[in-house]
Design a protein that fits this description.
The complex is a heterodimer of chains A (187) and B (316).
Chain A: H1 5-13, H2 17-39, H3 42-59, H4 69-83, H5 85-95, H6 105-109, H7 114-132, H8 136-147, H9 152-159, H10 163-180, H11 182-185
Helix pairs in contact in A: 1-2, 2-3, 2-4, 3-4, 4-9, 7-10, 8-10, 9-10
Chain B: H1 3-14, H2 20-32, H3 34-54, H4 60-80, H5 85-91, H6 95-100, E1 107-114, H7 116-119, E2 144-154, E3 159-174, H8 179-191, H9 195-207, H10 214-226, H11 230-240, H12 247-259, H13 263-278, H14 285-297, H15 301-315
Antiparallel strand pairs in B: 1-3, 2-3
The chains are: A mainly alpha (187), B mainly alpha (316).
């Protein structure tokens, strides 16, 4: 039987590095995937990942066991994603690009023709570019709902807002994405 | 209900978030509204387009990189926070020493340990500020006081607040399998500045009959992946041979294979990976991808050949 989150948290609070590491590896793929999809860049995703778990490490003692650890963790991730915007913008201005090549990396590894690969890469790049035009909140809601598959009520809990607000961000994000991608959508 | 309301319901419907009752109403509306049917088609096309990009997971190497960098950051944090809770507990529990010496095979450690922030006035995350009159541990004897920081002083009351680091030499003796000894060893492996101490700590683990311990294993993996000294990394890899080669260890070996600049370590890593396979461990898709990458692009001939052999043997 696997050790519960609560046990790991208790051990980590008593100084066990391995308990904290187990807690990290239990959830970190999801955190990284969320960050990666949100920022579309390898370096920024790593920055967010790092920031999230360092914050968790520092604040673990304050974690109240009555709520789910995962919800608390994703809430921190959502906050870090939202506040990451400024740093990301600065990087955009200096590099002139919203996403690095890595966001397309997995497409390159599949066994498809060069033409299909190029087309898929174009779509992926356009989607990433369109997402960069969303507001941070819209982008986060869109990422969490569309790519991470979270329910709207879960997103509301992560972002500490109402489900109605989440819906508004989602509708606005979808409209914006439709506009940005209309040429591809109607191909 | 206006047109925009129906579009919003359409969207919720596509995400499977529309309550059944609303879904029925929407279906009825769609039967009679060509404009909303066109909207649905357009939204479905958008979803199809996005679906194609939805499966892009972060590359496995990115996760490994992120974990490695996190381990480094946390070990630096722990290093900067020597009065971590476990260490405080250690010094408040003298019974541990009595229990430790009762065993036959012993490891002897002498450590200079910073305990200053136990007493100092860290305002944000540390323990609460203690009044001098409540200070139970005397500062003196072998304790060295350094880095005094004045925080506040109030001439009207004569109260003054400052923080300092107190360094006190501590001698520990206990069995290699004692939990407290293992914690100190883990700390030394991950955070000690002196290369010789890091090496000696790893050697203490590999040369004694230490029982496999998660804490030590984590420290060894951290050293293998991120220690700046190749000798320490090599010693950590050697010590890990005493552990059952689980997923964490295989991932660490793959990390060395793909990231370590030292070819000798990469060779040892691929040989260790091969030996984990012969013990019945299965190489998963991620591992095979990394081996394929090494087979194609490692700048060392031997590693390319070895990766090919391991891949071919795996297929059989």
């Amino acid at each position: 039987m696997s050790v519960s989150d609560q046990d790991l948290i208790r051990d980590a609070c008593q100084g066990s590095a391995s308990a904290f590491e187990q807690l990290v590896t239990r959830y970190d793929e999801r955190v990284l995937a969320m960050a990666y999809r949100y920022v579309g860049s390898r370096d920024d995703a790593k920055d967010i990942y790092q920031e999230v778990f360092v914050r968790v490490h520092r604040a673990l003692r304050n974690f109240r066991m009555e709520s789910e650890f995962a919800t608390w963790l994703y809430r921190i991730t959502a906050n870090v994603c939202l506040t990451h915007r400024a740093a990301h913008r600065r990087r955009l201005e200096t590099t002139g690009s919203g996403a690095d090549d890595d966001v397309l990396g997995s497409l390159h590894s599949t066994e498809v023709s060069a033409e299909e690969r190029m087309h898929a890469a174009e779509i992926s790049e356009s989607v990433t570019r369109a997402m960069q035009r969303l507001s941070p909140q819209q982008k986060l809601v869109f990422t969490l709902r569309h790519y991470q598959g979270h329910k709207l009520r879960e997103i509301a809990s992560m972002m500490e807002c109402t489900e109605g607000t989440v819906k508004r961000y989602l509708f606005a994000a979808t409209q914006r994405m439709r506009e940005e991608l209309k040429e591809l959508v109607h191909q | 209900m206006n047109h925009q309301d129906w579009i919003e319901k359409l969207e919720l419907s596509l995400y499977g978030e529309l309550p059944a009752e609303d879904q029925e109403r929407l279906n009825a509306h769609l039967d009679s509204c060509a404009e909303c049917r066109a909207e649905r088609t357009s939204l479905e096309q958008l979803h199809t387009l996005l679906e194609g990009t939805a499966k892009e997971a972060p590359p496995a190497a990115l996760l490994m990189d992120a974990r490695r960098e996190l381990r480094l950051s946390l070990s630096k944090e722990r290093e900067g926070s020597p009065a971590a809770a476990w260490l405080q507990g250690l010094f408040r529990a003298p019974s541990f020493l009595k229990a430790g010496v009762a065993f036959g095979g012993v490891a002897l450690l002498a450590a200079g340990v910073l305990i200053g922030t136990v007493w100092s006035g860290r305002r944000v995350e540390g323990p609460p500020v203690e009044a001098a009159s409540q200070q139970s541990q005397p500062v003196g004897g072998e304790t060295k006081i350094t880095n005094i920081r004045f925080i506040t002083s109030d001439p009207s009351t004569g109260e003054i607040e400052f923080a300092f680091d107190a360094i006190k030499p501590v001698r520990m003796k206990g069995h290699i399998n004692d939990e407290q000894i293992q914690r100190v060893l883990s700390h030394a492996i991950m955070s000690e500045q002196n290369v010789g101490v890091r090496l000696a700590s790893i050697s203490a683990v590999s040369s004694t009959r230490a029982l496999p311990d998660k804490e030590i294993k984590g420290a060894l993996i951290a050293a293998l992946e991120s220690d700046e000294n190749a000798g320490v990394r090599a010693e950590a890899m050697k010590a890990l041979r005493g552990y059952t080669p689980d997923k964490d260890i295989r991932e660490a070996l793959l990390f060395v294979l793909t990231h370590d600049k030292n070819p000798a370590l990469r060779i040892t890593a691929i040989n260790s990976l091969d030996s984990t396979r012969t013990t019945g461990q299965v190489l998963d898709e991620n591992m095979l991808n990394i081996l394929r990458q090494s087979m194609q692009s490692d700048d060392n001939n031997y590693i390319r050949l070895r990766a090919r052999t391991v891949m071919e043997e795996h297929r059989q």
